[in-house]
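Next up, sample data:
>
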Amino acid sequence: MDTLALILAGGRGSRLDLLSEKRVKPAVPFAGKYRIIDFTLSNCSNSGIYHIGILTQYHPLSLNEHIGTGKPWDLDRRDTSLSLLQPHKKWYTGTADSVAQNIDYIKRAQPDNVIILSGDHVYKMDYRKMIDKHNAKGADLTIAVQEVPMEETNRFGILRTNEEDKIIEFQEKPEKTDSNLASMGIYVFKTEALLDALENVKEENLDFGKHIIPYMIGGKVYSYIFSGYWKDVGTYDAYLHANLELTSTVDQVPLDMYDRGWRIYTRSEEMPSVKVGSKSTIAQALISNGSIVAGHVERSVLSPGVVVHPGATVKNSVILNDSEVLPGAVVENAIIDKNVRIGFDAKIGHGDDYTHNKEKPELLQSGINAIGKGVEVPDNTIIERNCRIFSTATFEDTIIKSGSTLK
């Protein structure tokens, strides 16, 4: 076996808050009919990598059901292998710890290289190019990198390279730096080098960025520059923005979902075609199978089975599977989870008060409302801005003030 892929898909994704309340972040729906992990799995399939282990942990049921046998990604053939690797010794305590706990799986597979991938990033990448460079350099480790804005460097592992692309310095999430070359969390290891590091670095909460990479710096560690679209959609703002970007005109869409040479595959539920009513108006939208639009939809993404009734309006929003917006309701700047019912004449995203969410101000500041799975918003209810409405919420008032949290 040339390359074994290990996809890290066990993180809770706490910044996505109620969207990851009952599902792991890689299982969160994205771009209508897809899940976030579909991009990594499709990259593997399109790159000819068919031996994959998916390391799961937090709320794995939704993810496991979605992946199944791996058929949508052509991973159910006789010459492929797909394994869901859940904790069996103890709870995973770090990115590298999750791999270390599955070291026997790696040894049994006997690959030349191991590529470590995150299951919660949105991008299209041919891993073969990175692996070819890794092999040509005789590298022990190759890290995919991308330039990021200087003000965001404290969110990433930041590195420096020499003229031969050898990494000479690495800092994990530095407070101050004058480099903006960031690790994408995509690593190709020579198998022997990975096993050596995992067996010799003795740290609690073993992590690639904090422990394994610093241990290997000074050896044959190189960078691979990736200049394409790549985004971590791990916050409400990033998630909404990345979804809405896909509704742009063809020449402005940053991620081409219609490229037949590099398809994004998913497990798709069999549903009827989209139905558009005679009085509906639609502008700049992604509308998925099984949806019915009889109202107004503008710059929004509708997942499968969403119904927008006559007289209802949806703007700048993402609405997930089987939710319903009843007549007269207005939904604006909102992320709405599955099976939500927005009642008659309700208003989501109303008024000019942008008070930050009082319980989680770091999560909601820009006016977005987040509504959890299965919520029924009563008729005539007004939800202002920066509100979090959990699936267990009860409505005692008809006006939910900006910055509120209902649980």
Observations:
- The domain at 270-407 is CATH 2.160.10.10 (UDP N-Acetylglucosamine Acyltransferase; domain 1).
